[in-house]
Amino acid sequence: MNRIFQLINYNNKKLAPILFAFAVLSTSCNHTIYDKLFQNSSSINTVTYNANGSTSGEPPVDLTDYISGQTVVVLANTGSLLRTGYIFTGWNTASDGSGSTYTSGQTFGIGMSPVTLYAKWSVISLISSQIFTNARNIALSGNIAYVAGGSSFYVYDVSNPVVPLLSGSKTLPDQVDEISVSGGYVYVGVYSSSSLQIFNTFSPYASVSSCNAIGNNWIYGLNVSGNYAYVALGNRYFGIYDISTPAIPLFIGNCGIGGTIGNSFDLDVSGIYAYVGQDNVGLKIIDITTITAPVVIGTCTINIYVNGVTVSGNYAYLAAGTSGLVIIDISNPVSPVLISTCDTPGSAIEVEIVGDYAFVADSASGLQVIDISDPANPRIAGSYSTGGNADGVKISGQYIYVADGVGLKIIYCSAL
Known about the structure:
There is one protein chain. It contains three helices and 34 strands. It is mostly beta strands and 416 residues long. It folds into three domains: 36 residues, no CATH class; 80 residues, Immunoglobulin-like; 287 residues, 7 Propeller (Methylamine Dehydrogenase, Chain H). The strands form eight sheets. Strands 2, 5, 6, 8, 9, 10, 11, 32, 33 and 34 form a ten-stranded mixed β-sheet that branches. Strand 33 and strand 34 form a beta hairpin. The longest helix is centred in the N-terminal third of the chain and has 11 residues. The radius of gyration is 28 Å and the shape is globular. The protein starts with a helix and ends with a strand. The N terminus is likely disordered.
């Protein structure tokens, strides 16, 4: 009888009088009838989230009582679970990660038993460190890493990331700030001499050519794509070089990006658009269909300091200094819209996107890994302290290359 009264409370109150009458009747009748009517009541189950060795944060709590066969929507890492030396990569039905893996928003049908979902952790660890001063930026080409450091760039063979080999270096008369590799050439943005310089990719890395930007404006950002090198310039300018003949680069197009404050600090190029970060403003979108006459068509003004820009799909990801990671919807280039921000503990300098994760060079706070599977709700999934000031980050395979002021750090990440 007690069981039946519990069921009355559980079910729709409108049915309570009928169920009560049935309960009274059932005391003198065959129990088989009500057992069949209420057999589903015994398969009410719960879903529990387990932190599984986290060093901070709390697992989410699901208060729902599920009936067998009901759909469960997996919760996000809303309690900011973190674990030193690991990144959070979802939930698993086994504590050792050998069961079924689910990520936020995925669904599954619950069975006849309670379910425990354990935090799934993927290793992130330093595997090598090369020491030299003022390491700022990185370009990768196959098994070769080119690292800008002070007034030089260093070339490493990273075919074995655990034991990278210094192949050579090239010293320039001024600070090397930006570096890119394409088509057998190294492209270098030399900071205060305001020039794009081109070198061979083999030792002794002989100079091929040099070309100054408009008005001798400093080069803050560089992106090489096909026959063109796109540059973010000081004094709020954007410029384009024709590099189809590397020995004779030509500065062929430019435009002002508007405003009275804020330099152009970094850029990315995707399709017919260039995406330029303007410090103290936000994001400018430039139509480069006519290569000799680029024009600004969209602006997202958010009054932040922008250090780095990376575009992936319908989103632009900004490394925005003390504002952390900023995500902007660029599906309509004429009217980009701020979607979300994710604060980081340091000052975000550069960002790389791989799958559902943003890898942020976060200055003194090293490398920050942010889950962007839901762009409207990015969350820090893990981090790694590189020991220096992380300024540049690039990724190849399961390895993360970080220029952190005191050298090149290579980090293994099992989630990649």
